[in-house]
Recover the amino acids of this structure.
């Protein structure tokens, strides 16, 4: 047994040391900065709570994250379903279609969206040429641009866990439900959906958390009209050199996320679907 | 408990199923009486599961008509057919408790809650599952899961109960006791049942009638006695019970009798013949091992005992004919029978039967055509 423990320690050691030195320690240091304001240990939180701008940005960040998550669920559901029913070459093609965007840097993809969405870009020209709009739509430097860009980047994180849950569902369960007299709606609501729930919750958690902390895409596509929390924290550090405020903002974000995750886990009967075999 | 009304009759007329160019089920007629227990017995790929799925409504027939009682259900989806299906892997809903699984069929019928609770309680008691209602199905043993699956199918009072190899996942000892329990249950409830299996012993224990299937068609439908004593072809003869099947040349037939040339015996004999035995067509001579009689002289066929296995009250013998063919024989144990002894093989009139060689599997020729 001792030998096994030694092996385990040796195998995990390098990664643990790197994580501890480069992630845990700096994180602890950053959070400790939140309590170092000359005006008192909790003064930074007071500043944030009193600031209408901060509250507005916080709210906007959550709204964007919730919308991105909801739209990702709606878009990912049919894709994941089709993926779970495909076989052979078609499955391979479809899976590569989902994974392909991962091969291109987020920065490149975001700049591409800037070109597509700009005032005189192809999308606006198409809309005007077909007579759907008279004047070009404002697709960039607002929440529309942020949503488009973020959904594009985050969609695979929703599709893959959802596919994982769907592909594990035994088709005979659906046949059994059918044979017992359940209509399509009952079968979906009482059998299929509960069994997809672990994948759905997993994917939604990924997407929601990544959306909250997203920086490049909202910064480039949203600009100063659609400020998110990550952009605000960056501006505390870069523009105002207010490290303690940045730390307090990060800490507040983390606390809120943890509370939300705990509530979700409590509300959804995820663990029952987890036994699906 | 309140008496559950009996099931409905089931009628299939000219039902067939083709997938692409592959004939999974040849045009088939089948009549099942209300309250009957009918088993579809056959090797895998024989079409028995296709026939079951067609009856359940999970598969649409290529041609033909299906009736449950007076209702034409040919194109009716499964959910409107009022059937109870037990799957081989049980297909219990993994995210529900035992009680929720059993209540499902009633709850999607929007029955009042008190009635659901009453009927679920009754069926759980009948299946000896009292006190299991709140257990997650994942925690049950295979035998218990099987009973839950049966309870879930029975609680909706199905017109026809369908079972697809429901004992396949159980170990041998358990299978035996569940067979007896199924039999008891069927006698008590009298529900029309179609049961699919490849295990002939299971079929013999449970069924009123058995349909032996092969190559996408019913080879013979009948009681156990029909199948064992009067098989229609060599496939049925070989599939039900043990048998010696020797190639023969049919010289002539008349009125259920045939004159056949048995090469292994080097003689021509007159025997009972199955309908369909025809001059010039390939045929087999069937003699069951327990019908072979051994004597030390007489006009029997000469053979040598090459193997003797004592099974207690019975003895299993292997005999080699002078032509080299072997026969299996089963005798009441007689310690004077030794390997190496020369004996004469005979049988009572009526214990040897000429049967047509089974039709070559149509699925193969169909495939070649496609």
């Amino acid at each position: 047994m001792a030998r096994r423990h030694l092996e385990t320690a040796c195998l995990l050691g390098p990664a643990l040391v790197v994580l501890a030195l480069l992630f845990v320690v700096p994180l602890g240091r950053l959070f400790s900065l939140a309590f170092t304001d000359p005006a008192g240990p909790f003064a930074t939180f007071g500043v944030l709570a009193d600031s209408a701008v901060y509250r507005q940005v916080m709210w906007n960040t959550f709204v964007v994250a919730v919308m991105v998550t909801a739209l990702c669920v709606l878009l990912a559901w049919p894709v994941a379903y089709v993926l779970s029913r495909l076989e052979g070459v078609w499955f391979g093609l479809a899976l590569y279609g989902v994974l392909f965007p991962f091969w291109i840097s987020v920065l490149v993809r975001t700049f591409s969206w800037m070109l597509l969405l700009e005032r005189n870009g192809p999308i606006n020209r198409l809309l005007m040429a077909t007579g759907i709009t008279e004047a070009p739509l404002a697709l960039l430097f607002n929440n529309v641009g942020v949503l488009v860009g973020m959904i594009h980047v985050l969609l695979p994180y929703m599709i893959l866990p959802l596919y994982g849950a769907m592909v594990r569902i035994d088709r005979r369960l659906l046949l059994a439900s059918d044979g017992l007299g359940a209509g399509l709606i009952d079968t979906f609501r009482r059998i299929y959906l509960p069994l997809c729930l672990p994948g759905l919750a997993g994917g939604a958690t990924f997407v929601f958390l990544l959306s909250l902390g997203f920086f490049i895409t909202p910064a480039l596509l949203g600009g100063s009209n659609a400020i998110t929390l990550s952009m605000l924290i960056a501006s505390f550090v870069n523009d105002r050199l207010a490290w303690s405020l940045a730390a307090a903002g990060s800490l507040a974000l983390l606390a809120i996320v943890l509370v939300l995750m705990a509530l979700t886990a409590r509300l959804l009967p995820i663990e029952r679907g987890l036994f699906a075999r | 408990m309140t008496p559950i009304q009996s099931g409905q009759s089931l009628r299939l007329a000219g039902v067939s199923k083709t997938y692409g160019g592959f004939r999974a089920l040849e045009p088939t007629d089948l009549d099942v009486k209300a309250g009957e227990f009918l088993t579809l017995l056959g090797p895998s790929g024989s079409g028995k599961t296709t026939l079951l799925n067609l009856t359940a409504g999970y598969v649409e027939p290529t041609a033909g008509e299906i009736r449950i009682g007076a209702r034409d259900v040919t194109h009716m989806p499964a959910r409107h057919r009022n059937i109870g299906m037990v799957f081989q892997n049980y297909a219990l809903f993994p995210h529900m408790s035992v009680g929720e699984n059993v209540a499902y069929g009633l709850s999607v019928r929007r029955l009042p809650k008190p009635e659901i609770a009453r009927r679920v309680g009754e069926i759980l008691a009948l299946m000896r599952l009292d006190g299991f209602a709140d257990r997650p199905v994942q925690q049950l043993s295979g035998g218990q899961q099987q009973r839950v699956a049966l309870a879930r199918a029975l609680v909706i009072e199905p017109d026809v109960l369908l079972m697809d190899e429901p004992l396949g996942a159980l170990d041998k000892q358990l299978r035996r006791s569940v067979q007896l329990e199924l039999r008891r249950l069927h006698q008590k409830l009298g529900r029309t049942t179609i049961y699919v299996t490849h295990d002939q012993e299971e079929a013999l224990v449970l069924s009123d009638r058995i349909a032996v299937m092969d190559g996408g068609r019913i080879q013979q439908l009948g009681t156990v006695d029909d199948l064992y004593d009067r098989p229609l072809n060599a496939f049925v003869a070989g599939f039900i019970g043990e048998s010696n099947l020797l190639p023969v040349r049919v010289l002539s037939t008349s009125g259920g009798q045939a004159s056949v040339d048995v090469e292994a015996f080097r003689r021509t004999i007159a025997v009972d013949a199955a309908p369909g035995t025809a001059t010039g067509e390939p045929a087999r001579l069937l003699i069951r091992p327990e019908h072979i009689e051994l004597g030390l002289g007489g006009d029997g066929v000469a053979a040598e005992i090459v193997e003797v296995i004592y099974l207690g009250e019975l003895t299993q013998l292997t005999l080699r004919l002078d032509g080299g063919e072997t026969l299996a024989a089963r005798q009441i144990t007689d310690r004077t029978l030794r390997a190496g002894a020369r004996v004469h093989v005979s049988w009572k009139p009526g214990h040897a039967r000429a049967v047509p060689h089974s039709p070559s599997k149509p699925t193969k020729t169909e495939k070649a055509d496609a």
Summary: Chain B has three domains: 10-229, 243-289+349-370, 293-346.
